[in-house]
Each structure stands twice: as C-alpha cells, then as structure tokens.
Amino acid sequence: MTSRPGPDVALDETASIERMYALTDGRTRPRHVLSMHTVLGPGPRSPRGVPDESVRIVALCRQRSRPLVELAGTLGLHVTAVSVLVSDLIDASALVLPIPETPGQARDTQTLLALSAALRRRYPQATAKAG
Hints:
This protein has helices at residues 7-23, 52-63, 68-75, 79-91, 105-122, and strands at 39-42, 66-67, 95-96.
C-alpha cells in the first residue's frame, strides 16, 4: 500500500515557495554568475538591514570559506534563493570570492568570477558590448 501526501504537504510546499519569494524580494536570478561550487569568504563589511538568513551566511563564511551549495544545505534553503542572497552580499562587500591557491582550471574560473563580481560592484551601470 502506497501512501499519498496529504494536504499538509501541499501547504508546506506553498509556505516554502512564499518564504523564498519573500527572502529574495521575488527575484529568481542572482546578479553575479555563481555556480554551486563557487567558494565564498567573508568580506570587509558587516551586513546591515538584510534578512536573518543573510546574516547566517556571512557568519558561516567567517568560520571558514564555504561553497554555495554547502551554505544552501546548512541553511535548508533552495540553492537559487541562496544564490540571490549571496549576490546581494557580494554587492554589499559582506562576502567575497577568494582566489584559490591551487593552480589549474578551478583557479582560472574562480579568478574570473571574482574579477567579474568586483567589476560589477565597481561599475553597476556598465554593460558589455561584443565586437
């Protein structure tokens, strides 16, 4: 005999979606290109006027640098919501993308992501033009 989810499960899913919507102000995409494996470290500023989840993200990163997916798992939030929150924290200089010490492809990608985040923070109105 298989059990079917009851009405409480549907209410929990709806509440979870509404909570994510409220946390991210309805945004579904971060301003920065972040993969699940992007490692984040603490920035020079403390977060102010941000949700409790953002404060917890910064506190976790102050303990040690952590990948985005680990932050999502620790907080019990969807990776997309954490990506949006992390993007806001990068803009506020509360988080940074540390450049890893190991050579290779991972370092090159992380370096480009860190550079991209810094340029977006410095020149928020700039747009890239091809050619």
